[in-house]
Amino acid sequence: MVRARHIWVTATALLAVAGASPHVAVAQSRPAAAQGALEKNDGSPLPPGWRLAGEGPAPQLVWRSDGTVPMGDARVEFRSAGRLLGVPRPGADGRTFRLPLDGRQAARLRGLEVWSGGRRLDAPDTAGSASAARLPAALPANGVDPGKPGSYRTRTGEYSLKSVRLPGFSQPVEMRAVVVAPVGASGKRPLALFLHGRHYTCYKGQDITGDWPCKAGTKPVPSHRGYLRDQRLLASQGYMTVSISANGVNGQDFAAEDGGAQARSSLVRLHLAHWADWADHPRSAPKVVREAPRADPSRVLLVGHSRGGEGVNRAALDSLTPPPAGQDGHHGPVRWHIRGTVLIGPTVFGQNPVPDVPSMTILPGCDGDVSDLQGEVYVDGTRAVGNGTALHSAVYVIGANHNFFNSEWTPGRSAAPADDDFSDDPQHHDPVCGKRAATRLTADQQHRAGSTYIAAAARLFLAGDDRVRPLLDGSGKRAPSADPARVLSHAVGARRGAGFLPDGGVSVTGGRLCAAVDPSPARACLGTGAKGASPHFARWETDRETGRSAIAVRWTRAGTPARVTVAEPVSLAGAKALALRLFVPPNSRAAQLDVSLTDASGRKAGLGRIAPAGLPGSERTASYWAQEIRVPLTAARRAGIDLGSVKSLEITPRSASGRAWLMDAWGWRPGTPAVRADALPRVDVGRTTVDEGDSGVRTYRVPVQVSGRGGSGRVRVYVIDPATGKAEDRLVTVRPGGHDIDVPVEVKGNTRYGTDVSYDVLVKAVRGAVVGSYRGGITVHDDDPAPAMTVTPVAGEVTEGQTLKWRVSLSEAVDVDMGALFEVAPATAPELSTKDVPASWLRDTTGEKPDPERPLSKVSGFYLWADIPAGRTSAEITVPTVKDRVRESTESLLFRQVDPRTGEPQAGGLELSGSVLNAS
Asked: Taking the model in full, what pTM does it have?
């Protein structure tokens, strides 16, 4: 096959894979009989900005952004035809991202896209200007305001301990923290530990990097000092606080399959182990701790921002059930008790929240980093998994971005360079999140709101003060200290009893049971036409999921009811109200909906009318978020229906038209129960790499460990087909010590060179189980040597008007496409010029015009590509010439093999040289 293509340096694809050493060919990532790795089905190149590169059996898919992609917490993902290909590694330039491929992945390189936190990076923002959004009315003030400073003065200091080694990381990680303590407080004090998220690690002036360790002349970014405002508020109220540094994790977590969650958990628990030591032996503590009140390790609140949120969630899990020893950086007894977590704009790559530890998740309405607000899964993902005694709250902060909860990530306040993560197009200002939008918070307003709600969680989870619960559980109260921020909340768990859960086996009439994640618009909850996204439907790693559902209602006339019927009657006896989590489209006026219940005998009672209105939203926000609406059960009791045996819930629109989505409905009563942490089986998936071998068939099994002390639980196992990327799932009952998750992988040995292949497995908790390491599998390493590549001139000397031709050959046929990239280089004078080749060919190959006439070596971005299909041993490269009427001497042409990763010529690489004789 002949390839002669123009490759733009920053835009068009380098359709190339070059060798690691001279004259050695490497695999192009397309297996036999596959189509689309180097070109689309119509033969056109990969999309602008994409190329193939790499060496050996692990070629790479490379994407280069037109601008810098800030180092943030949402991971950058490559997708093909809507399915996840993988998580690429960022380059030092902040613009280049590389993903190692196996041959089967490369077979499905169609519809390439780059996503991060629910936002597409490789396509321009097409959202135009919209009308200004309106804020909802301020809620009534709560009786207790946790944002008011307490009576204690505070003292601040730092400690630095010996760095630690964490599994999977080559460099040690720092043990550094800033402490803010109350002055004069007596007795042991509850401890709040803060963990920042993924941000740049090192800086010098205005230069900033993700290196670790920091290079000479640069300083670590002090991200851990960004919560001093929160710490001082808590310390004034009598809490001990510590914020730990995690730059060493941030600089290395690109290599972690879980995004660094386990490493962050290890770091948190290593610090907690020291605090437990210092509580028992105060004289051994650093000065700042020694001079402070003694901490109480039995009352710990973990506060995590972004990837730090996922890290503290994992630390809470690991404190209840230890992870596999080989994955863990902390070894020893657990001498602390985590009473709750606060998760600020968190990631949740594993989508496996801890069900029996209370949590509050802050969702920033203008998050430009984790913009899909996937942290909602810390609420939705706990339903029916544990015993339900833990409160799981989400608070939606309208107008807040991702970074400004940390002052070291805030321009004008940080030591290192910082920015606003919600980038606003100056030509099309976002009506909700643009810097001048009425709904957008200033950095000070946002941080003050964050401090207030962190203090609310501390007061509820650590001090047990139920008076602050209405701020967190959907009761519709506000904390005046957070003004002017509009903060809304909803929750599951605590004193919510039985109810209507779409995932629990219900039937729906007058509406539809929709899928949170599904490629079919007919099945997906939002489908086409949605103006923005929903945190409830944030994607995981598969293009469809089983068991994540909601109830979608659309009506075009008033009076058409939607009915949700449970398989077995539920009991709402003892409940004070029915709490619905429901949303309507952003910016929509209040919908009028009547709510009624029917018991098992058929008796029906209307509960009342609700009027949910849309949140402020744009096409760039995740504003399809459920507000909690409570309908008293007083009317049902008066009507005499049996609340102990309720069969159906009915929602009847009274507006002329509209849409609504019901996430769930529960029997609710006030109060915060004592939390009971059940002993649940824990699942951890590992990864094994095996050699392909030269012959025979070997069967390997994906390593899965089920630990814990509990009985049985249920998880959903997804097995990804490496050839198609499709996932097959099944429900599995697991028991500690059992081998219930059995995924065999057959490996056929051969002596033909190919690429590595990964067989991936994902696991999610469903009921009565927890999951730590959620992904793993078997990676089959191709252990055969690459064939040698040579170049032979077929027509290396021609008369003008004829075609130069070279044959690129392999020493043997292999199972994957092979390729080499050549760039034009200065040749012996006189050189072939832009007018010595057909103008159309020059334009198609380089994008350049022949005028002004110049040597071909002066044409930028002039590459030739040799593509040897799988099973073949050679391909030809051609350069056509034109006959002119000018008498001239013999002209020459030279191309040299280059490494597409660097763009530099390979030392001792192959060359294409030719001469063109005058025809006159």
From this structure: 0.85
